[in-house]
């Protein structure tokens, strides 16, 4: 251990982090694996004093969990659709079991006499195997939702993966509670749960009564509010520490104690984000720094890490995909969702580090989990970028079997349909288009792949196909080649490209949000490109001009536009094309 | 295995300081007073509950580094250029005069010559934290006297940084030694400054341009940039030792220059909002830990002297500032308000005193450090009330000041936006709105957090602010409160709620919403018009489709304008000539 001041160690850490993040950005990699790698590099310089850095790093964990907790109780929790929940549970159980099994096999093998030289000093017990299982099972989004803003996409598989992720988060918090019990014996778990409940009860009391007082006292000063909230968090952490339960529980409770995020505190919550990002960066870098190179002992650590990578990058997408197809999603959405989840979750890293600190996890297994996390996150970046290509490859080889339809009435298209309009996506826009076609007596076919839209399709549409638009049989059934016009309301690159391949024979209208993209699409034969903002601007211009020319005064405009709003409030319903 | 607990002293300091800080806010005292008092109460002076630890010391060091980094980020050359001359002419004589008075007072009291020099050096600055905070709270930061005060504070801060560097070099052995140290420091500061400014011209713009859209990455890389300077200045003696140079550079100076380099980029305002909270947090630990090293006897050793010096200094500071403002031909009110704000001793005085006390061997003892701290504490507390009631005071004393009335005072340059248009977020909808609004309004400022957008907007000839609208600083700079028309093309409910909370009933506000429910909420909050882009878009598209089914040539004609725009593929085509648009 070189004797270096903490400030210098921090400075070195961040000086290495900066350039690595820039390189990662150039390569299109995400932040977290880059941070872990930076930590790994700095760790080899031997300037980091583990205990002190861990203390700062745990502030990172605390802030992450705290923010997560504030988010889930202030933002209305979505009503999670039941079949996604089941997929999430089954997926986690299967992967968890596989992970545990794998680790136990490795453990038993290492006990063999022939491998005595390369084995671990301590036996790889079932407890250790449990953590490998957790790492394999959870691909949580806790960091995903706070560190990266996910692009708001309208695609089924993006929606699915974020649903599964949020469920994983809840699972992870419960697991952490259990982990912090210090052992898996029944009694401590009960005690810990008791403490957890007490902390959360205290948090609710604070939320109801005390927070109002803080609020009144600090009114008008963002700084006072910011430090009060930080102090509240720290107070809960200290209490958790005192009760010898996990600081994660404390942080979670502290999040509950903070009252809804009103607008006047937006500055404060922005401030918390900055503080959080600073400590989270330290956290992931410290995690990397805890891995010593060269790996010692090499064979077991490398085997475990490699196994975990295979489990998460290869097996997990297969399991998830199969489960989703089984619940009625098309094979494409299922595959892409699987590819979204193919990494060791950030929350698993937190579970691992808590277990390490509590002495539950031996260092080689910890190192294996961290390495697997970094590698799988980088690979996940790649599979995410090339997900359509991977799907094409796998489907092309016939590995996915035939498109699967678990409903008999998966289409209701008359055989002789022609000169019709094909409407892709049954979202808000799709519905308006259907209504419009019906007004004009124009024949149409709707293509939709979200099982949740199926009941509406059955009742409302004369002709629909329930399935992936790209599958050849969908094109057959909807008689795409004989159509007059195809309107795709789904903003998916692969869908858009697919329909444009029909542009020679059929009029094709596609949709994109990006103007530069629109030029390319027109170049490739699109009859028109729906750019929602451009269209909206045309309409808006009239209202604005009327106001500025004095045709309207602002009260009239307000009254009229509010009346229009009432008309707009048709019951919105979920589909692949608007989320 | 590693055994980690959250350091109890950090937890204790944060919780106690927050508690006292909130109380201080309630009582109208600056939070700094609350923090220092916290240190006094929980430290050895009071209850003796907490002692400094590695973590608290590091956080305190980071606090100073971040404070100066933040200060650096605020220094945009082009914003202060026109006031540089009067600011220099006020700040330099002022520091010399106050320094001399402080030294003189200290020498007449029972302080040694050397201690008196340090006291003189420590009392000549006014408090950046107090003045800027109070000016912001009163909305006077961008008034003429506010700008000059801020400028003078920055000039003082540069001197602080240089003095800290000299102090870091240790005790000089004579005039020649001081000169040599000063020379090395000046060379190092100059070299670092040149490196920083060169980087801000050639290296940072392309670098930050690439990453500015990604808020987290941008923030972390900026922090990395800060730490690069911190590391180099901290380790400069090690780095230069092989060359036989005995050199020192303060971490604060490095941090300040790192900030200065970023300040010249268009993205600096957004970064201020990001760095501010971290600074608040660490600075809090810094101020608490100031008193942690004190024994009660040290802090109060010279309390009588401190009361006398505080009273004299406040009067002298006011007189000196007023005279200099007057000399620079500012009007009476500006001179009075500008001077009355600056009468306190700065927190940097404490910083300098701490540096002097920690220098090896120390220039001053703990008792003298306590004296300077007490001085700062008292003058800051009193001055807060003077700033709070500065206008009422001015009305009272104006009759007696009339003989210093200027015949031709400097007029405040009015750079504030008034009755203008603020556009939040730039997209196709906003672009079209701008085109219509520019016929009616002279001043339009666009706020956006996307590098490509701001470049396009600038090219189109509008004023533009890079930053997140959620930051108060950005809203203030855009003058949202005084706008006549605000157009938000952001569909984030939070942003629009903030916006509607800030505008008055006279402002016409157009905002965008994602859902009808959100739209309803925004109408409740007073929006004149809520844009539901998807619905508007569908309505327009259906109009096109009607033509498509009825008569294909009509359809082709109707979409021609759109198609031309789409074909151009330009994200933001020249705003002034959109071909064939229906808004022409």
TrEMBL record, chain A:
Pfam families registered for this protein in UniProt: Na_H_Exchanger (PF00999), TrkA_N (PF02254)
Any GO MF annotation of the entry: antiporter activity
InterPro entries named in the record: Cation/H_exchanger_TM, Na+/solute_symporter_sf, NAD(P)-bd_dom_sf, RCK_N
Membrane-spanning segments: 52-74, 86-110, 130-149, 170-186, 192-214, 226-258, 278-295, 302-329, 349-375
Membrane topology: Multi-pass membrane protein
Keywords for this protein: Membrane, Transmembrane, Transmembrane helix, Transport
Positions of the UniProt region annotated as Disordered: 553-579
Biased segments, Basic and acidic residues type: 555-579
A GO CC term attached to the entry: membrane
Broad class of where this protein is predominantly found: membrane
Annotated RCK N-terminal domain residues: 421-532
Lipoprotein is among the record's keywords: no
Compartments (UniProt record): Membrane
GO biological process, one term: proton transmembrane transport
SUPFAM superfamilies xref list: NAD(P)-binding Rossmann-fold domains
Keyword Transport annotated: yes
Domain (Cation/H+ exchanger transmembrane) ranges: 13-379
Protein family (similarity comment): Belongs to the monovalent cation:proton antiporter 2 (CPA2) transporter (TC 2.A.37) family.
The protein's name in its UniProt record: Monovalent cation:H+ antiporter-2, CPA2 family
Organism: Natronorubrum texcoconense
Lineage: Archaea, Methanobacteriati, Methanobacteriota, Stenosarchaea group, Halobacteria
UniProtKB/TrEMBL annotation, chain B:
GO biological process, one term: proton transmembrane transport
Membrane topology (UniProt): Multi-pass membrane protein
Transmembrane segments: 6-25, 32-49, 55-75, 87-109, 115-136, 148-170, 182-204, 216-233, 239-263, 275-294, 306-324, 336-357, 369-387
Keywords assigned: Membrane, Transmembrane, Transmembrane helix, Transport
Species annotation: Natronorubrum texcoconense
Listed name of the protein: Kef-type K+ transport system, membrane component KefB
PANTHER family: CONSERVED INTEGRAL MEMBRANE TRANSPORT PROTEIN-RELATED, SODIUM/HYDROGEN EXCHANGER FAMILY/TRKA DOMAIN PROTEIN
Location in or out of the cell: Membrane
Domain RCK N-terminal: 421-532
GO MF entry, a single one: antiporter activity
Positions of the Cation/H+ exchanger transmembrane domain: 15-381
Domain of life where this protein originates: Archaea
One GO CC term, this protein: membrane
Entry similarity comment: Belongs to the monovalent cation:proton antiporter 2 (CPA2) transporter (TC 2.A.37) family.
